[in-house]
Write a structure and sequence with these properties.
Length: 70
Amino acid sequence: AQVEIAVCDLSGARITTVYAGTDAAGRHARTWCGRDAAGGLVPPGHYLCRIEVDTQADRLVRIRPVSVAY
């Protein structure tokens, strides 16, 4: 399935793409290093992790909160 994982600010603006690619069925782990698309550290605070999976049958979108503290 096609998978995209992005981190957004609370207004929904994309900060960075953590992963975009094709994955087989099963569980997969992806990590975010706390950096934006330009490579700079994001300020401490709350963000949204947006996970999109395109399957043959459906498109699934999940949004989960992520907190950053240094």
